[in-house]
Structure formats: structure tokens, C-alpha cells
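Minutes, methods subgroup
Present: GH (chair), OT, SY

1. OT presented the first of two proteins processed in the latest run. Sequence and C-alpha cells recorded below as shown on screen.
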Amino acid sequence: MKNMCNHLLVFLVAVLSFPLTLSAQNESTNELNYEVNRVYPYISITKEKLADAQTLMDLNPHYQASWIKEYFSVEITASLKGVQKQEVGKNEMLTPEQKELILRADAGTDITVNVRYLPNNNLKHNDPKELPFSFSIEPDIDATYPGGQEQLRKYLKASAVDKIPDGTFEGYDLAAVKFTIDANGVVTDVQLFWPSKNEVVDELLLATVRTMPQWRPAAFSNGTKVKQEFVFTAGNMDNCVVPLLNIRRDY
């Protein structure tokens, strides 16, 4: 009889413990994901890659030499000490003069390229075309929140994430708030890029970003400070809108 009671006690403990274990697992898997990521320009290049660049494809990964049947000119324009300078090449290969102009361009300014060409097609009337694009050079130091990424996460958690009602984000739900850190480190241009299903939550996210403390701005090695764009997301990063944010996640 005593053995039967012992077995029954073990059984009851196991049964009662199971829901508690399941509940703990559900709480951990339902924890709201939130991130702040850099929003990159459509075309940008680091100084390291720029130093090795030899062709237009090295400057613009979207450029395809196969589009071109015949080149007429390749014009590269950049600001040099506040004055617009231009160097002209004959094809997709960068000339020494073009390369020097790019490397000496004023920090934080866009560099423009205009390709005049004959398209590679079989049309009877194959008219000359122009293919313009611009790119920027990445600063040496990205904008940073005071205290770093860990302090930023603590601020967002206390100011917004912990105040979001359970069940607001389900499945692939996502909210995204874009903002800019200007050359003085001030948060500007705060906008709701992608709303959640709850307007009150959206206002909470916007207010949290607007009231962030001043950041250390992005800068080049020569001391020139520039603005950078970021996005604060809450919810499922497998949402189909994420590729539209133009972020780079390495984790």
C-alpha cells in the first residue's frame, strides 16, 4: 500500500509539473523581438573596397556590363573642396584620374556616375541611352547610442517593449520606425515606416524614438560628421517588409 501511495505521488507531481514547464517554454518563445539596425543607402562602398575598385561594377554591384553594346562616355562627378569636378572615361574601367577624384572627394558627399551608351539589344532603332547612378562612401565610425548597443536595448525595453500588451504581435506581425541621427547626434525625421495592428502601440514606439538621448554621430577619420539612418523594429523579422528596410543583419 505504501508503495502504491509513493507511485501515485510521483505520478501526480509529474502531471502537475508538466503544465508549468510548458508555460515557461511558451513565455520564452513568445518574447517580443526588437532591434535597431542601420539603414544603408541604395549604393554605398567602404574605403577599403574603394581602394581596390577598378571598374564600375566595383562601385555599383547592380551594374551589369552586359547591358552595354558600345560606350560613348563615362562621366564621374564629385565635390572636391566644395567645387564640383568631373573626370571622363571611355568604358567600365576606371581611369587613374577618375579613381583619384573619387578617393579625394569631400567626405559625406555623394559621387555621381553617368554612363552614355548604346544598349546591347537587337532593336532596329537602337537609340543611345544614359544610365546615371550615385553612391556614397561609408564613414569610418557609425553613429552610436550613449553607452553602446546594450544600453540602447535597455532603454527601448524599459520605454517601449515592456509596455506593449501581450498578444499585440502575433505570427509575422511587425512594426518599423525609421529615424535619422544627424551630424550633431540628434534624433530627427522619425517616421512610422510599417504600422502594427495597434495605433496606441505605434504612438508608443514613435514617442520612444523621439525622446531618445543624443547619440555620438557618424564620422570620417578627418573629423567630418555626417547623418545616418536607422530603423527600430518590433516583432517578427521574417516579415516580407524587412527587405524593403535595406538593412544588413549578420546574425
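2. SY then presented the second protein from the same run.
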Amino acid sequence: MQTILKQMLDKYSVKTLEDEKSAMKEVVQEVALCGLSRSRFFKVAAFCGGTALRIFYGLDRFSDDLDFSLLSPVPDFELNQYFSILENEIRAIGLNFKVEEKIKSTDSNVRSAFLKGNTKENILTIYKDTQELSSLNPAEIIKVKFEVDTNPPAYATFENKYRLMPSPYHVKLYDLPSLFAGKLHAVICRAWKNRVKGRDLYDYVFYLSHNATVNLPHLKERLIGSGFIKDNFNLCRESLIMLLSERFKAIDYELAKQDVLPFIKDKTKLDYWSEEFFQNITQNLLLT
């Protein structure tokens, strides 16, 4: 399977140690998806979030996490039933990662786990001639978060996609309008405090630039679930633009840029970020 690993890595142009780490994470993400597919995970769950947007729709930024949502609520869903197959799939291509569940101190509908591997060990497996290894802490761990929402909001719509590497597999994922609804929910509701998540804004621009439409019923369910609006709120194009407009007035765009910079190659895409920019492009918002 070392040949498979090489084939998967050949599509990356790596120049730095950070590039190597990102390439390894992305390979681990795709191998994990293949393992989940083999385990019939996508009979009960769908792929969503930024990594789904990157892998299947071409988002040009790195995304750390693997986010999933069950197709219908299962309060006692057991995430650990998939751990062994994930570890075996990753081991089969020559990497060494373990899966550890994150035990939460409070009740949550989200089940979380981490795929963890020693950075130095796995980088050596992949890039045997790396010159920067001396700068790596031998104890450094590379992590990929894996989360499943066990109580998903209603009205999401799905599609099936296929990938060929590391071997052919199938993924059920949120379609683009439902993914966009999830991102709009994050833009409107995420508690940024002093850490503005510029990645949300970057993805928002990506959706608009690809003429994505919004799954409005799904977005409304998400906003109700967060307590942001009431059931009787009239969510339409005009009221959605109003909610976004209020959010864009409150953002520190310099902090937003700093957040997203480590995840993108073309820094010039942030040159026009400002309240005026986001208010203006929001007029292009389309509904399904």
C-alpha cells in the first residue's frame, strides 16, 4: 500500500514542513472516509462541513476536521464502533494513527474523537529526505478531529459522491445548498468573542462565487435549534440578508484575516475584506 500512499501524495506541491503536515492530514482524512464507507457508516450519516466542501467541491483552503451528521436522531449513537476500521485503514497505507474518543464533561449531541499520530514518525514514513525534522519536537502529535452530530436539524438534502483513492468508495454528503445553510448558520451564530473565525467568511465568499443557493428550511431549523430565532420568525431572503448585515457590522476584519491566513495559499484573496465588501456581495445571495 506504500504505492497508494505515494500516489495520493503526488498531487501535492510541498515546499515546507508545514506543507508536509497538511498533505499528511489530508491523506489521513481521505483514508478515514474510505474506511467509514467500508464500515457502512454512510448508511446512517452524511459528510458535511469545510472538509466536505474542500474534497468534493474544490474549496481552496485547508480544513482540519471531519464533520458528520446522522441522517436521523440517534441519542445513544456509539462512535467507537468505527474506531478499529479507521485505524486499520490508515495502517494499511503505512501510517500509524490511533483513534481516541473525546469524553465530554457536559451532555452534548455531538460525539467527538481524534485521529492521532506522532508527527515525526509519520513524516519520516512519507518524506524520508525531509531536511527540517531536527526542528520537530519528538513528542509532537498530529491530530484530525472527527465529529458526529447525533441530533441533526431537519430538512437537509443529500447527494452521493464517489472517490477512487485510496480505493473506490462512496460517500453520502450534504448537497451544496445544505452545506451553505450550515455555513450561514455559523456566520450568523458562532460565538467568536475575540477570536473571529475568518474561515467562516472565506467559505462564505466561496459559496457566493460558485452561485450556491441556500437550503432555507434547513437553515431555519439550525437557527431555531440555536435559539437565535423563534418558530414564527419569517426567514426569507430579505430577513436573511438583514441578519447577515447585522453580523458584518460587528466583525473585526483584521482579526478575521489573521485567522484564515495559515489555511490558504493566495493571500491576495483577503485584500478587499471589509464591512462594505461583505455587505455588497451579500446582495448576490440566492435561495434554492
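Chair's summary of item 2: The chain has a mean pLDDT of 93.
Next meeting: continue with the remaining queue.
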